[in-house]
Amino acid sequence: MTGTIKEALVARALEEGFSKVGICAPDAVPGTAARLAAFVEAGRHGQMGWMAERMEWRGNAAALWPEARSVIMLAEVYTPEADPLAVLAQPERGAISVYAQGKDYHDLVKRRLKRLGRWLIDQAGGEIKVFVDTAPVMEKPLAQAAGLGWQGKHTNLLSRDLGNWFFLGAIFTTLDLPKDAAEVSHCGSCTACLDACPTRAFPAPYQLDARRCISYLTIEHKGPVEPELRALMGNRIYGCDDCLAVCPWNKFAQAAREIGYQPRVGAPELAELATLDDAGFRARFAGSPIKRIGRDRFVRNVLYAIGNSGLPRLQAVAEPLRDDADPSVADAARWAVARLSAQDGGG
Ligand code: SF4
Ligand code: SF4
């Protein structure tokens, strides 16, 4: 009976727009808690204080909801149509990560998970909880346990049939569904992602020091970024795709099925982004995940990119922001002006 339900569930998930489905037990990754504790003890979570809270939940999906008997892991593809790294050669523009180019994936994936979950309850009963990038759930180890793919040397999930451009969603259910076999690493001797990282954020394969990662620095980090690191950020103003883009398994990537992930923001001119005030920022990025970081952190990032641009004409854009009410923006503007004027003077 449950085998039939599982087959129907997989078919239904694919119909809904997911690209891959796997199922594991909530306690399928017992080593997660220890790995998370080591990561936090080493301070590699940076300012993401929530990672150090409720670790007994986060490292152990079974404790999160003791009644759950199965975790259904789903992959939703957002593969870019063009090379996401091409914009790095255009210093007058800001590079915005592929995943943030379209509508907010939290909303899109969650809506789909809820529809699928309701369908499952109608078909087989039980109760469900759905999660998308939610603090208490360690989605990547669960997805590997469910056979969706493996956590590569860049620590993201990838698979032999999808590459690595996909979001993860989870449905916890009280139904005891048949489980899938866990996937193992197929990275082999490849080190492309480790070699591509502009800030050397991987202390070792399969380990990330978030404090050096541009994704973390542009999205999560509050206050000024260390000058040594901001100089390495180039024109990346929201996230970073370098380690994902170079993975050779992307030759098997599938096209995105969700129209909402089509690029809406592109690679805007830094000069225009630097002038955004709060209202302008909110209007410009309504419905986008970018809106979550707020104008101040975003303009701080834009000013780092201006400082890294090597374009003296952008100095005039940064100058008025040296007196900005936000101390991080003012600091970034002073840094950008000093860098560009040193270059302009041949220094
Ligand atoms: S996202 Fe960018 S900075 Fe972060 S680990 Fe990957 S390549 Fe390095
Ligand atoms: S780039 Fe190479 S090492 Fe990195 S995740 Fe992909 S296959 Fe693994």
From TrEMBL:
4Fe-4S ferredoxin-type domain mapped to chain residues: 178-207
Protein name: Epoxyqueuosine reductase
Pathway: tRNA modification; tRNA-queuosine biosynthesis
Active site: residue positions: 133 (proton donor)
Self-association state and partner proteins as the record states: Monomer.
Keywords for the protein's UniProt record, in alphabetical order: 4Fe-4S, Cobalamin, Cobalt, Cytoplasm, Iron, Iron-sulfur, Metal-binding, Oxidoreductase, Queuosine biosynthesis, tRNA processing
Residues given in the record as [4Fe-4S] cluster 1 binding sites: 187, 190, 193, 247
